[in-house]
Amino acid sequence: MSVPLLLVGGGRMGEALLGGMLAAGRPAQDFAVAEVSAARRAALTATYPGVQVVEQPVAAEGVVLATKPNDIAAVAAAAAQAGAQRLLSVAAGITAAAIEAAAPLPVIRAMPNTPALVGAGVTAIAPGAHAGEDDLAWAEAILGAVGVVVRVKEAQLDAVTGVSGSGPAYVFLIAEALSDAGVLAGLPRDLANTLAFQTLLGSAQLLIDGDSPANLRAAVTSPGGTTAAGLRELERGGVRSAFLEAVMAATERSRELGSR
C-alpha cells in the first residue's frame, strides 16, 4: 500500500514541508516520512500523530528527496523501484540529469531557503527533462505550503542559491551588525536587538508591498540628514560591492558543487 507523498529525510526542511502541508489542511494519512535517526523518528512521531514515520522508504506516488546530496541517487532509484511517479529534490548541487540517471521519472529540482521553517520562505523550482506542467503544479502545491514559489530554468538555480539560498545568512549578519552598533552607541543589548530586528521586518514588509528599494531609501533620506550621513559611510565602506561579490562567490561555489 502506497501513500500519496513520502518525504525522505525528516530534518529541518523535511519537517518544515510536512508541517506546512498539514497546517494547510492535508490529512496526516497522506504522508510518510523516512528518517534514519531514531531520535528524529521519535520526535516526528510525537509531534505529528497520524503520520507514518519509518526508518526506510515506503511505496509512494510522489517523493520529496530531502536527504544529504550523496544519498540522493540511491534514494531516487529506490523510489522508482517502489512505484513512485515523480520526484522533488531539495538537495543543493545535484542536477536533475543526475537524478534522472538513477530514476527515469519526472524530476523537479528546488532551492528553498531557511525562512520556510516559519512559513515565509521563497523557493525556486526548475523542471528536469521529463517533467511537465502537472509535475510543476504538484511541486508548487508542496512548496507553497511554506512560502512563495517561483519557476526558473535549471541553469539559474546557482544564482538563486547565491541570492535567496544563502541570502538569509547575509541578512542575519546585517542584524548582528545593527545590534552591535546600537550597543556601541550606548543602548542595552535587548533594546538594540528589538530595534534592529523589527526594523528589518518592517522594511521587508514595505518592499513586499511593492515599492522599489531605491524609492523607499530615498523616502527615508533627507538632504543633509542623519540617514544621508550613515549611507555615505556604508558606500565608503563598499557595502554594495561586498554584497555583489558575496552573491557571485556563492553562485560560483554552487556551480562547483554541482559539477562534482
UniProtKB/TrEMBL annotation:
GO terms for molecular function: pyrroline-5-carboxylate reductase activity. Keywords: Amino-acid biosynthesis, Cytoplasm, NADP, Oxidoreductase, Proline biosynthesis. Catalyzes the reduction of 1-pyrroline-5-carboxylate (PCA) to L-proline. Its EC number is 1.5.1.2. This is Pyrroline-5-carboxylate reductase. It is found in: Cytoplasm. Signal peptide: none annotated. Pathway: Amino-acid biosynthesis; L-proline biosynthesis; L-proline from L-glutamate 5-semialdehyde: step 1/1. Residues 154-257 form the Pyrroline-5-carboxylate reductase dimerisation domain. It comes from Solirubrobacter deserti. Residues 7-93 form the Pyrroline-5-carboxylate reductase catalytic N-terminal domain. Transmembrane segments: none annotated. InterPro entries: 6-PGluconate_DH-like_C_sf, NAD(P)-bd_dom_sf, P5C_Rdtase_cat_N, P5CR-like_CS, P5CR_dimer, Pyrroline-COOH_reductase. It is an enzyme of class 1 (oxidoreductase). Belongs to the pyrroline-5-carboxylate reductase family. It catalyses: L-proline + NAD(+) = (S)-1-pyrroline-5-carboxylate + NADH + 2 H(+); L-proline + NADP(+) = (S)-1-pyrroline-5-carboxylate + NADPH + 2 H(+). Its main location: cytoplasm.
